[in-house]
Amino acid sequence: MAGVILAIIFFFGFRECQNRKSQNELIDNIANYKDSAQFYSMKVNGMEVDVAFNKSLVLSNKDQLESIIKKNDTLAKLISKFKAISSTTIINNITNITGDTIKLTDSIPCDFKAFKVRRDSIHYHFLGTISPKYFTIDSLTIPNKQSIVIGKKKLGFLKGTEERVEIVNSNPLIKTLNIESYVISKPKKWYNTDAFKISASLLGGYIIATQTTK
Fold this sequence. Notes:
Elements: H1 2-31, E1 38-44, E2 47-53, H2 62-69, H3 73-79, E3 82-103, E4 115-120, E5 125-130, E6 134-156, E7 160-169, H4 194-212
Antiparallel strand pairs: 1-2, 3-6, 4-5, 5-6, 6-7
């Protein structure tokens, strides 16, 4: 008996050490992960486009995912409505427009020296030049952060779930018009089907009932 107790203590102690080591490694990886986007070029329809990429950070358990999500209110709210999560993604992007001059069809009916216009907002930063004959966008910067969740979304009581991708843009000026998401359906093992679980529950209940009546 003493040997069994010691073995149990050793097992749980070893597992706890492994969990802490895994957690520490995850924290170290996250520190070097957020700013590590890389790029390469490819041709699409004859045009050269940049492809941004980053490796996916593989988590070993659900607790690690939850510890990361707690730091992001948007992801936390999205995930709370999902039954199962396949992946989460955070994308920081920025739109830059510079040096775009628009000639006025009708000149402003007065003469004045060109002047600068600046507007700094939490949603965009703008610098332009206005003159009697033209308007120039010297720089227009629009930042945005996309929070993306892919998984099985709960539809409500007795309505089951559906495979879904949800995207939230932090900048209200950015609108998502269309989403195309494709997933590969993996058939459930026979012991994970609802029919098997119901049958096993009924059988277990029957066995318990027959044993208690003896």
